[in-house]
Amino acid sequence: MPDSPIRKLVPLADKAKEKGKKVFHLNIGQPDLPTPQNAIDAIRNIDRKILEYSPSEGIKSFREKLAAYYHTFNIDVTADDIIITTGGSEAVTFAFLACLDPGDEIIVPEPAYANYTAFAILAGAVIKSIPSKIDEGFALPPVAEFEKLISPRTKGIMICNPNNPTGYLYNRSEMNQIRDLIKKYDLYLFSDEVYREFCYTGAPYISAFHLKGIEQNVVLIDSVSKRYSECGIRIGALITKNKALKKNVMKFCQARLSPPLIGQIAAEASLDNNKEYMHDIYDEYVERRKFLVDGLNRINGVYSPIPMGAFYTVARLPIDDSDKFCAWLLSDFEYENQTIFMAPATGFYTTPGYGKDEVRIAYVLKKEDLATSLKILEEALKVYPGSKVRQIAAATQE
Amino acid sequence: MPDSPIRKLVPLADKAKEKGKKVFHLNIGQPDLPTPQNAIDAIRNIDRKILEYSPSEGIKSFREKLAAYYHTFNIDVTADDIIITTGGSEAVTFAFLACLDPGDEIIVPEPAYANYTAFAILAGAVIKSIPSKIDEGFALPPVAEFEKLISPRTKGIMICNPNNPTGYLYNRSEMNQIRDLIKKYDLYLFSDEVYREFCYTGAPYISAFHLKGIEQNVVLIDSVSKRYSECGIRIGALITKNKALKKNVMKFCQARLSPPLIGQIAAEASLDNNKEYMHDIYDEYVERRKFLVDGLNRINGVYSPIPMGAFYTVARLPIDDSDKFCAWLLSDFEYENQTIFMAPATGFYTTPGYGKDEVRIAYVLKKEDLATSLKILEEALKVYPGSKVRQIAAATQE
């Protein structure tokens, strides 16, 4: 079981805070934007005497509203296809447990959300990864690379679209290539689409459920955490039109009894005002994205592709080792008594050596905080012992 | 993965309700008693703009209050020994995942909480069970039976005390025997003590943490679901003084990010008023227990031992097959347009053949509902095709 690259440095951050240092959290996708007022009101108006179990598959009225929400994205599912889970984390875990036997393999383009590996290990499954490249903007690696990895133990492909951590959004051609692979080898397509509301370029969001002919193979992963700034309520969903699979997933759901009741009430209320809420949120992220990525690319030796969706970017830094640098920022560095907490990208790759000069940065903080964070990063790179900024500067001057 | 014996008949119950039948839920430990007003108030007064992630190990102030609560039971733990989980279910799951490798074995006296098996399967572990007997009041089977099952793969013993489903409360001598086994073979002792507040006979509640010399081996499982009628908020705890184990459990906690935020707020508020709340609740269960067990034993051919704790009893019925009988009650029987939903005890045993004439009954409904339920059971046994009541009656008349 690997440590979480997002959370493993938390003790260092806690120590920095104890010393009175201000720490900007760029490491974790916890937006600073307010949760929808509808959700807060639903909680504050709760009118129950007993906080009882909900159904193992989740509250019916909530599942019905979710189905209607998916219809607005041309995702044709019913309330019966939806199983409410304790966060997207549980949805991925149950998907792997229900679909994979110990020793089975799934193929994942990387960098990828680190906890997929953790959940695969939990299911006894093996992740086979294909690195995508920062210089190609983290586009889908060639299908030939996928086919090389397919073995009799291969049971599925896992994608995240729009992508965490890269912000990449798969285009029609890439999605069709994935569809053809899924069909040809009869694999599961695990598609984590929790960032669907965050697509910034006008390019279409193509859901796995938009792909014709593989409807029975798709396992959609969703969560309200990110879109409604409701990370704490732990509400996600697993969506499948495959009845046999649903039956298996339900066994795991029944074993853990039920998803959180109050979270479901909050999430259901959030859906009532989805369009208006997302409108404001969206504009804010468009601003932050431009501000962060422009700022990063202005720093000597730093490169970030422009993310098309989600609210992360993977940036290349002029450093020896992202794990060391991120730890050093928390333990040894300060700029005007402030520092930044970033996620080393090594944790998002399983291919050894990858991510050593990359970090994941979440642009979930307001512009003012992002501005300070960029300044801190720039100053840190000037003095970090493993920094290559001086070499770059020297080379430029020659 | 087995079906949940508690929830697998839910579709039949739903159908019965759709037909307008009233169904009394004796199958599930969902108390009808009100959640503490403190908890409801804490939710209604929530004053947050963002429902954000909580720490992976749970909110510190909640863990500190929990530690103080355990001290009132002479359980000497600190906030640092406590990890908040998404219900007791997740605590058991993480305990198994962190302590057991695939193929490792744990010994469990049965009948046992059915989902232990599900969580063991999830961890790739194997449950070796020893049946306890209804005619012995479900007392701990002889230690010699445990020793027979110990192999090089045995890593732990799992107990539930007070017991779900039997209501048995282990005495000092039994707990000392368990302690000696744990010590002799250096095993983990997984001790599910979520019903500690429900001990009815004056006999002491002996926690696994009361046993001297095995402090590093104990993994305590707790949950607020049952004691505060808060099953829906999904808040439990895993408690260990073993630092290496805690580190491993934390990896799973970080992968699933955090336990539910609002549930923690409700649970923390419940602790503020624990004593007063439990006082009233306790008296109510004492009444219900006496009423139910007396009523069961008055029905021809039915036998229930008197449970010493928790709020379940396993009763022997004059029937051919508890799975068939419980399904028949929902599908085919009604008494004044009402029926009862019980959990077949077969699901609480892994030893084949056990539990076929036993059911688990939760006395979580008010006395009036229990009275109706008893009447329904009595009438059902008169007409159920697989009933042995007529044979018993005939034998008595001869």
UniProtKB/TrEMBL annotation, chains A, B:
The record's similarity note reads:
Belongs to the class-I pyridoxal-phosphate-dependent aminotransferase family.
The UniProt record lists the Aminotransferase class I/classII large domain at 22-371
Organism source for this protein?
Answer: Aquipluma nitroreducens
Q: Which UniProt keywords apply?
A: Aminotransferase, Pyridoxal phosphate, Transferase
- Pfam families in alphabetical order: Aminotran_1_2
Q: What are the required cofactors?
A: pyridoxal 5'-phosphate
Instruction: Kindly give the CDD domains that the UniProt entry links to this protein.
Output: AAT_like (cd00609)
Could you mention a single GO BP entry for this protein? amino acid metabolic process
Question: What is this protein identified as?
Answer: Aspartate aminotransferase
For molecular function, the Gene Ontology terms on record are:
pyridoxal phosphate binding; transaminase activity
Q: Which InterPro entries match?
A: Aminotransferase_I/II_large (IPR004839), AspAT/PAT-like (IPR050596), PyrdxlP-dep_Trfase (IPR015424), PyrdxlP-dep_Trfase_major (IPR015421), PyrdxlP-dep_Trfase_small (IPR015422)
